[in-house]
Automatic annotation (TrEMBL):
Domain of life: Bacteria
Keyword list, A-Z: ATP-binding, Helicase, Hydrolase, Nucleotide-binding
Species in which this protein is naturally found: Kitasatospora aureofaciens
Coiled-coil segments: none
Annotated positions binding ATP: 213-220
Protein name: AAA family ATPase
Domain UvrD-like helicase ATP-binding: 192-537
PANTHER family: DNA 3'-5' HELICASE, UVRD / RECB / PCRA DNA HELICASE FAMILY MEMBER
This protein's GO CC annotations: cytosol
Length: 689
């Protein structure tokens, strides 16, 4: 395979004129969608379908206008005559973010990157050309503000006459893309998805997958492109349940928010796990110990017992239901047996309750029909709701709200001792107990961890609806109870789980994927490693990799595709002066800058920068257009900056139990340059190559 940049003006001019045809066709497609709205509203036929058609067409037209302007294509495929080319023999296709087609009866001007034919663009190699004779990649660059980008270059690979030797280094267009200075929010990588990433993106909908990926290996990018691929390839199955993307925090969600719209997908829900379980406002804060116990998987068993402990297992009074001159009677032992049988079915609590009701009614109906006539559904309903049956249900299988169950558990030591017996020790139970139980369940104050307990109980009472697919990013940080909240919502769907055990910073973070996947309800998910980093230059990665040995996790060291990059490690006498000088120097170069430190150090540094006349954007604006961000180490996860200035690594390492993991996250945010400034000795692992 040969790869060469073609400066052929004639070729570029020909491609530019094709760009014009595509743009004109795309504009006509939008106009046509508008026109169809008018036509759609005029169609005769019944009012309801005309209205539905009108609504569909209006939405489609609106969406086409909402889609962001982007290069009309980024690749070209030239199929050869080999049998592998199949139906595409001798054909040429342009690959872009979305299909452009003027007339459904002729081949489209541009095919969608997710269409089956586009697979060859990402996967063909010299070794396996997949029927391609040649592949062309296009380079685009911004022209004037507000105008679409210009086609500025092209790069050809000849695949058909391959000599079996692939390029050892990435092509110029990929290199330019990964080395591009970062400004603003995250962008899509659709033009340069790599084969091992594409394999994940185009995985089957029914298969859950877990990606253990090194920093900057494209986990987030892969997850978002997979979401777009699934929506395109399985619209019916996905749209029924919906697709959800879960990220670690708001800053991160804002940073990734524009990727899916750029790929034409405007209505994917993106949220944090906290959003998922936010059934009520958070008005209390837990101590460290209580938080840790509440996030522990054993809480699930305690809650299950607390809920099902409300069911009366034995000692029911006989049930007597008067009806006219009759008195129907069910003996207490029969009722106890019936309740036990329903419990064994292990249906959700609310369904179990209705099953008990239905079976009691059936027993009475059996008696009644022997004595009188056949009973219908109205009669069944009347008996099911009559006072004696309702009273029996309230004692034997009471209707419960999650708040009632959790308030009793945390507020009443006897209830807690009963439910936690043999599961939590006395110290753990003491940590859970409310020091001052609220007067009533209504005045209870709930912490963020309590919301997970409420969600767990809510899920036992009634199963929540299941999404068709859920993408979970930074999954190494989820607690077992958070995993369970996600598992409940993907019980009938599949998962894409993305994470890096080396970046696990929460006290309850995962130490093994097998365990985490079991909590997520998908123990069979395939574990796929991604080790090539596209963000972090080799010099930065080498420094960060020094920490790996001290992290006690089983992950392969990350490799970097980028030989560029600069690292400076400087002991300084005074951090305030040093950070001002470092930021001033960084401002001379292109791209985004972040000053990252533990909280106290950062507050001082931001003040020093302000005093020196250098404004910094707060963390909430991370990933927007601000030039210098003051970023607490705790919020750095998932973000990236061209130039990262890390202050006092020892303070970051000491700030929390998994401080070295945090430091690993912080160091790997750098796209091009990393400065480490310290007044205190560096953490030991950093000093040993
Ligand atoms: N194939 C690719 N082509 C171009 N850029 C890429 C490619 N893959 C990843 N990148 C870029 O590398 C950077 C890192 O990607 P991403 O954030 O998805 O990695 P990650 O594995 O989630 O990282 P982390 O674990 O550090 O959060 C992003 O800027 C992304 O656009």
């Amino acid at each position: 395979m040969t790869s060469k940049a073609m400066g052929l003006d004639g070729e570029l001019a020909r491609e530019r004129s094709y760009v014009e045809s595509c743009r004109a066709a795309s504009a006509r497609q939008v106009a046509d969608a508008d026109h169809q709205v008018v036509a759609g509203e005029d169609v005769s036929g019944d009012g309801a379908s005309a209205e539905a058609l009108g609504r569909y067409l209006r939405t489609r037209a609106k969406r086409m206008k909402e889609l962001p302007e982007s290069p009309v294509f980024f690749g070209r495929l030239d199929f050869g005559d080999a049998p592998e080319a199949g139906d595409h023999r001798g054909q040429r296709y342009y690959v872009g973010r979305r299909r452009i087609s003027e007339d459904p009866t002729v081949p489209p001007l541009v095919v969608d990157w997710r269409a089956p034919v586009s697979r060859a663009f990402y996967r063909a190699s010299a070794h396996d050309p997949l029927g391609l004779a040649g592949r062309r990649r296009f380079g685009w660059a911004p022209s004037s503000p507000g105008l679409p980008e210009d086609l500025t270059g092209l790069e050809d690979e000849l695949l058909g006459d391959a000599d079996g030797r692939g390029p050892s280094r990435p092509g110029g267009i990929l290199t330019a893309e990964i080395e591009r200075p970062r400004t603003g929010p995250m962008r899509d990588i659709v033009a340069t998805i790599q084969p091992e990433q594409d394999e994940l993106v185009r995985g089957e909908l029914s298969e859950s997958v877990c990606v253990q990926g090194a920093p900057g290996s494209g986990k987030t990018a892969v997850g978002l492109h997979r979401a777009a691929y699934l929506l395109y390839s399985f619209p019916q199955r996905i749209r029924r349940g919906g697709l959800l993307v879960i990220g670690p925090n708001r800053t991160f969600l804002r940073y990734i928010a524009e990727v899916l719209p750029a790929l034409g997908e405007l209505d994917v829900s993106q949220c944090t796990v906290e959003d998922l379980v936010a059934s009520r406002p958070v008005t209390a804060v837990d101590g460290e110990r209580a938080a840790a116990v509440k996030q522990d998987a054993r809480m699930a068993e305690v809650l299950r017992r607390a809920l099902y402990g409300r069911i009366r297992a034995a000692g029911s009074e006989p049930l007597v239901v008067p009806e006219g001159s009759y008195r129907w009677r069910v003996p207490g032992e029969r009722l106890d047996r019936l309740v036990a049988e329903v419990r064994e079915q292990a249906a959700p609590y609310a369904i179990g309750r209705e099953n008990v009701r239905a079976r009691v009614v059936a027993l009475i109906q059996h008696q009644a029909e022997r004595r009188t006539d056949v009973k219908n559904a109205t009669w069944q309903q009347k008996i099911g709701r009559c006072r004696p049956v309702a009273a029996f249900l309230e004692t034997a299988w009471p209707a419960l709200r999650p708040e009632t169950v959790v308030a009793a558990l945390l507020g009443d030591p006897a209830v807690l001792a009963g439910a936690a017996h043999g599961v939590l020790d006395t110290e753990e139970q003491a940590a859970l107990r409310w020091p001052r139980p609220p007067r009533s369940e209504r005045s209870a104050k709930w912490s963020e961890h309590d919301l997970l307990l409420l969600d767990e109980v809510a899920g036992l009472i009634e199963r929540p609806a299941s999404f068709g697919h859920v993408v979970v990013d930074e999954a190494q940080d989820l607690s077992p109870m958070q995993c369970r909240a996600i598992a409940r919502r993907s019980a009938f769907g599949s998962l894409t789980v993305l994470g890096d055990l080396a970046q696990a910073t929460a006290p309850w973070s995962a130490r093994s994927w097998a365990e985490q996947l079991a909590h997520l309800g998908k123990p069979q998910a395939a574990l796929v490693p991604l080790t090539t980093g596209y963000r972090v230059p080799a010099a930065v990665m080498a420094l960060a990799n020094r920490l790996l040995g001290a992290l006690d996790v089983d992950v392969p060291p990350a490799l970097s595709l980028r030989p560029d990059g600069e690292v400076t490690v400087r002991p300084v006498p005074d951090l305030d002066g040093a950070v001002v000088a470092a930021v001033r120097a960084a401002l001379q170069r292109e791209g985004s800058i972040a000053v990252i430190a533990a909280d106290d150090t950062l507050t001082r540094a931001a003040a020093a920068l302000r005093a020196a006349g250098i404004p910094t954007a707060p963390a909430e604006d991370a990933g927007t257009t601000a030039r210098v961000t003051a970023l607490p180490a705790a919020l750095a996860k998932g973000l990236e900056y061209d130039h990262v200035i890390v202050l006092e690594p020892a303070a970051i390492a000491e700030a929390e139990p998994r401080g070295l993991h945090r430091l690993y996250v912080v160091l790997t945010r750098a796209v091009s340059r990393l400065d480490l400034l310290h007044t205190r000795p560096l953490p030991a692992p950093l000093t040993t190559p």
